[in-house]
Write a structure and sequence with these properties.
The protein is of the alpha/beta class. The protein has one domain: Ribonuclease E inhibitor RraA/RraA-like (Glucose Oxidase, domain 1, 3-Layer(bba) Sandwich), CATH 3.50.30.40. The chain is 34% helix and 22% strand. The strands form 2 sheets. Strands 1, 2, 3, 4, 5, 6, 9 and 10 form an 8-stranded mixed beta sheet that branches. Strands 7-8 form a two-stranded antiparallel ribbon. Helix 4 links the parallel strand 3 and strand 4. Helix 1 packs parallel to helix 6, helix 2 packs across helix 6 and helix 6 runs antiparallel to helix 7. It is elongated.
């Protein structure tokens, strides 16, 4: 089940990962936040879009005549506006699937970010391009001979969370949330309501109302 571009626009403009996580908890989906080891290259940037997935495995060689980048290239060349490349590497410390050139190609196609529990490189140029990337570590490694894409646009695990192509992926300085596509419209709507409530609570706390009174009044903490 897909969701409209307006859902992405509203989430990108007004939401943050903590409020989405709270809403998903309330809906019974408590395993949607990627592990705390996944960090943004630039904490000032927000990532929000539809998941396009790649499943990696570790390897120790490249067969003669093989192009180990075939599926990786196919995914990046097929990225569309508002897509997010999500690379599941099993938290490998050997696979660095993302760098400057893939960021440049993705940005030119209107993609809005990359999430990987593997490693990234060329980080100064990626930061300069202001392309949101969330990663499991930084290293100068090429993936050639260390990791290979086994499938694209299939359900994967990234940083311990199941991600299905088309899911809503949202990331900011607090981490990354994967929202199942079928829940995206409802979750974003509820999160927007919660943001409005949190704004009111913040104002009341700032003027000196006690936390106990404000919580009793709104049920928001």
């Amino acid at each position: 089940m897909s969701f409209s571009n307006s859902v992405i626009a509203a989430a990108r403009q007004s939401l943050y990962t903590a409020v989405l996580s709270d809403v998903l908890d309330s809906l019974g989906h408590t395993e949607q936040a990627m592990g705390p080891g996944l960090r943004p290259l630039d904490e000032a940037l927000v990532l929000c879009g539809r998941a396009r997935t790649a499943m990696y495995m570790e390897v120790d060689h490249v067969a003669k005549g093989e192009n180990p980048y075939d599926l990786e290239i196919a995914l990046v060349d097929d990225l569309k506006p508002d897509d997010v490349a999500v690379m599941g590497c099993g938290a490998s410390s050997r696979i660095a699937p993302w760098g400057e050139l893939l960021s440049t190609a993705a940005l030119a196609r209107g993609a809005v970010g990359c999430v990987t529990d593997g490693l990234v490189r060329d980080i100064k140029r990626i930061r300069a391009a202001r392309f949101p990337v969330f990663h499991g570590g930084i290293a100068p490694l090429d993936s050639r001979g260390r990791g290979k894409v086994m499938a694209i646009d299939v359900p994967i695990r990234c940083a311990e969370v199941r991600v299905v192509p088309g899911d809503l992926v949202f990331g900011d300085a607090d981490g990354v949330i994967a929202v199942p596509a079928a829940l995206a419209e409802r979750a974003v709507s509820l999160a927007l309501e919660k943001v409005s409530g949190e704004n009111l609570v913040r104002e009341e706390l700032a003027r000196g109302d006690s936390l106990a009174v404000v919580f009793a009044r709104h049920g928001i903490l």
